[in-house]
Amino acid sequence: MASATAPTTLSFLPTTTSSSTTLTRSSLLHLSPTSSSSSISLRSSSLSRLGFSAVDPLFALRVASKVRSFNSKAVRGVVSMAKKSVGDLTSADLKGKKVFVRADLNVPLNDSQVITDDTRIRAAVPTIKHLIQNGAKVILSSHLGRPKGVTPKFSLAPLVPRLSELLGIQVVKADDVIGPEVEKLVASLPDGSVLLLENVRFYKEEEKNDPEFAKKLASLADLYVNDAFGTAHRAHASTEGVTKFLKPSVAGFLLQKELDYLVGAVSSPKRPFAAIVGGSKVSSKIGVIESLLEKVDILLLGGGMIFTFYKAQGISVGSSLVEEDKLDLATTLIAKAKAKGVSLLLPTDVVIADKFAPDANSKIVPASGIPDGWMGLDIGPDSIKTFNDALETTKTVIWNGPMGVFEFEKFAVGTESIAKKLADLSGKGVTTIIGGGDSVAAVEKVGVASVMSHISTGGGASLELLEGKELPGVLALDEATPVAV
Ligand SMILES: Nc1ncnc2c1ncn2[C@@H]1O[C@H](COP(=O)(O)OP(=O)(O)O)[C@@H](O)[C@H]1O
Ligand SMILES: O=C(OP(=O)(O)O)[C@H](O)COP(=O)(O)O
Predict the structure, then answer these.
(1) How high is the ipTM of this complex?
(2) Quick one: which ligand is closest to 304's CA?
(3) Is the dihedral of CA 84, 88, 92, 95 positive or negative?
(4) Whole-structure pTM over 0.80, yes or no?
């Protein structure tokens, strides 16, 4: 990540800040510099209380870029977003305690009930390990799919072997979510063990955020950890309702990391900051584009949405995907980018097809040369080069949505080229954030997932965060205890 260019040490001066200024560990990662403010100094003792070391290069780089200029009002605003973390809980808080952990273990299963991608299970492990290593009894809850009532194919049973393997202990599985049998299993749990409850969506009360159901879930435990980032945009009983009955209610490590990147790194980016937005329709990305236009220096657009932008500029698009009712919006977005000084780049050439199929005939044409009856399904080689050149100077890049119909091999080149370019930039110390959904699938297909700074585990949740929305599952958690500096 940033270590190549980061200073290895940072000096901290005695505090000289206003007495009302407070900072927390995650607020430090969310600070927005302002131009008109006075400087701030941090005491190293405060930093160690926040869990940072003065030689942590990523932290040093972030602080170095932030302490230059921000005012205490800005700091207080950010502090209010910071949530108490599972990392704040020690063995004194956890030993022998029953902890209700809501994770998002909504993994894909094939017809034989075999997990085809265990990313979300692996992502939940650090929080669970922290809890069991500190002697807690973990009551683990998740949904799987969108069942209507009890549906055997949506049981969490197939997850037990992989979860046990990753945790290094045998996970016990309950056949229900609440009730006497579950209570018996909870009562028999030894310290440092894990009980996996059945799919919480087998109860319709979950999605209704029924308070009585939330109370029953809460009655199983002493405290609550939400690590289900992928479901944090849902106000359900196990993500939101339960927090009203369990204190403390804190954020898990995964949830925190997602917020650090999708809110922190995006609101206070190393610049130049570029966003790449693709996907099928402009209508599903309006909020993201509008929000990112406030923050980025460069905006690259690809995917099916570009044809609405072309048509809005009077360019023929053949039978490409167009949202006729969004032509004015496309024009407005172009004008907005110009007014804000954002460099908005649309592809200059496209790969077109004579039908929407993997075996379609295809050719490369300039964006203005799409014949009738043909449709654009990928960005072309000139556009890839232009996009790569634009990305070359960046320090932070966020990507949401494929550049073309990457599910068809013939039209996957643009998306895969972007994935490779981001991997290359990541290796050079650029912060690269992949914002969920199909772009994650593309990055994994190319085999470069491990080198990215952050790959979001939530499609819908990451989109809402990038739109600037607050997530109910996060809002409901306890505020972090401010640390005076
Ligand atoms: N030119 C195009 N024409 C039609 N569909 C496209 C085009 N480019 C990309 N897509 C489709 O967009 C879909 C992803 O869109 P979307 O759901 O908005 O993105 P994400 O899942 O990353 O949020 C993919 O299934 C892809 O095939
Ligand atoms: O897979 C999920 O979301 P995502 O498809 O937006 O990444 C989450 O588990 C949330 O599932 P939901 O959209 O059924 O609430």
Answers:
(1) 0.96
(2) 1
(3) positive
(4) yes
